[in-house]
Amino acid sequence: MSNVDRIMTAPAGPERLLMVSSDGHASAQMEEYRDYLPTAWHQEFDEFCKVYKQKGSRNFETQALLQRFDTAVVDVWQENVMKPRRYRGLFEPTSRFEEMNRHGVAAEVLFPDFGLPFELYSPLLAAEHGYRRTPAQKKVANQAYNRWLVDFCSQAPERFAALALVNFEVVEEALDEIAWAKSVGIRGVIMPMFTEEHPVFHPRFDPIWSLLQELEMPINSHISLSGIKVYEPKIPPFPHPAVATPVFGRVMGFYCQQILSHLIWGGVLERFPNLQVVFTEQGSGWVVGELQSMDYSWEGSFFRRDVREIVRHTPSFYFRRQCHLGSSLFSKAEAEARYQIGIDKITVGMDFPHLEGTWGVGPGHIEYLRATLGAAGVLPDEARLMVGENALRLWGFDRVALQPVVANIGPTIADLLSPPERDDFPLGDVHKPLSMTF
User: Fold this and answer.
1) Alpha helices in 69-111 (DSSP H)
2) Any domain includes 3
3) CB within 10 Å: which end of the chain, N or C, has fewer?
4) CA-derived radius of gyration, the chain
5) What's the CATH code of the domain at 211?
6) Burial class (CB in 10 A: 0-12, 13-18, 19+), 61
7) Is residue 2 a part of any domain in this protein?
8) Residue range of the domain that includes 131
9) Looking at the domain assignment, is residue 436 inside a domain?
10) How many CB atoms lie within 10 A of CB 377?
């Protein structure tokens, strides 16, 4: 009997559920990065920090939020999150544990957040001001972040799966950083942005895919961090500033989701059959139509039949074998389409500390799951997989080490799956249509 079979046949009782958030963010306060940068960079970083104190902005702070969200929503955020300083879990482990416990989350997968070394603004503000980091700054910032993150996770390593930021431009350097990451307990690597000259499927990256496969480290794509093309938006003459987010968001989502197409049609998943790939914070429902379209291209279209020399199986075969979804920004429609998407593919995320996540604007993560999983009639055995068990296996969390945490803070099935009595999330992603990225 497989692990999945054992889970699916477990009795639905009042046990505490193991919940893993597939999408969390952690970053240092800017000055903290100094100790993780090479000494040769200290003077330049000190000068940058002087500017950052005056102009720096993170994407959960008011200046950045008002570019993307309605003022009424930002007002709620100010009351719920900013005034009680709940955002401090971004860089303080103790505050992070308090927030995780509040929402019944035993463990988290950790991505970076904006506010890395030499990163002055959140993306839209950076575009507005024409601010860019140099390639050298990005490289040293990634390495500093990875080393800070290891220290952050050391406070409770069983509760975190850290993901490394790795620049793929110099393959040998990337291989060294990945090997180092594995040696210090980092669980996976973040997919970078690629270029048209060297796309995802370019053979120069084969040593990276091979090493990740050998080390059993999933490669994780995430909106704004990953894409088939380097995307640094430039502000055109919009008729109104409110249209920037829907325009830029769709472009970023497209570039990120097209990684799946490149991996499959480019033969990467055929050549590296044990490489595991995760698509996080870019919706989950899109894969239904995408795979149907790709399968038809392979089976029934006028396209060349000899594509099968590179892609030997249907695209959906590769998705079933090697792909997973970091299902933050999860909707009721996606919960209802769980069989089409794949119950074994969904790993629900909280997206701390972002406003669009499940935890801050409404009453909380458990209530959000009640409004999606509960309202969609998700069965207890299905919920166990989507909120914890799928993530546990994918990122290699230690079930035994997490059991004391689960016993103390885990929700019950009834907590999670009782249909809501009122709509606590009239805005946001709960009611998002199935096909939307944002």
Assistant:
1) 71-77, 93-102
2) no
3) N
4) 21
5) 3.20.20.140
6) middle
7) no
8) 17-417
9) no
10) 11
Residue environment code for 380-404, b if the CB has 16+ CB neighbours within 10 A, otherwise e? bbbbbbbbbbbbbbbbebeeeebee
Q: 145, 410, 351, 30: which is closest to 153 by C-alpha?
A: 145
Report if pTM > 0.85.
yes
Helical H segments across 203-336, by residue range: 206-215, 244-265, 268-271, 286-299, 315-322, 332-336
Torsion of CA 25, 31, 32, 35, to 10 degrees: 130
Do 262 and 229 meet the contact criterion of CB atoms below 8 Å apart?
A: no
Listing from the earlier edge strand, what are the strands of the sheet with 107-111? 20-25, 107-111, 160-165, 188-190, 219-222, 277-280, 323-327, 346-348
| Total number of domains in the chain | 1
Q: 2 exposed, middle or buried (CB, 10 Å; 0-12, 13-18, 19+)?
A: exposed
Half-sphere exposure of residue 135: CA atoms within 13 angstroms, side-chain side: 6
Residues ≥6 apart with Cβ < 8 Å to 352: 21, 24, 25, 89, 90, 96, 99, 108, 359, 360
The residues, ordered by sequence, that sit 6+ positions from 317 with a Cβ below 8 Å of its Cβ are: none
pLDDT tens sequence for the chain (438 residues): 443 343 334 444 578 999 999 999 999 999 999 999 999 999 999 999 999 999 888 888 887 888 889 999 999 999 999 999 999 999 999 999 999 999 999 999 999 999 999 999 877 778 777 888 999 999 999 999 999 999 999 999 999 999 999 999 999 999 999 999 999 999 999 999 999 999 999 999 999 999 999 999 999 999 999 999 987 777 778 888 888 888 888 888 999 999 999 999 999 999 999 999 999 999 999 999 999 999 999 999 999 999 999 999 999 999 999 999 999 989 999 999 999 999 999 999 999 999 999 999 999 999 999 999 999 999 999 999 999 999 999 999 999 999 999 999 999 999 999 999 999 999 999 999 987 655
Instruction: Judge contact between 256 and 229, C-beta under 8 A.
Output: no
Rounded Cα distance, 5 and 23, in Å? 26
Contact 160, 153 (CB under 8 A): yes
Whether residue 261 lies inside any domain: the answer is yes
Find where tokens 């019950």 sit.
412
Backbone phi, psi, residue 188, to 5°: -160, 180
Distances, alpha carbon 235 to alpha carbons 130, 240, 247, 256, 322, in Å: 9, 11, 11, 20, 37
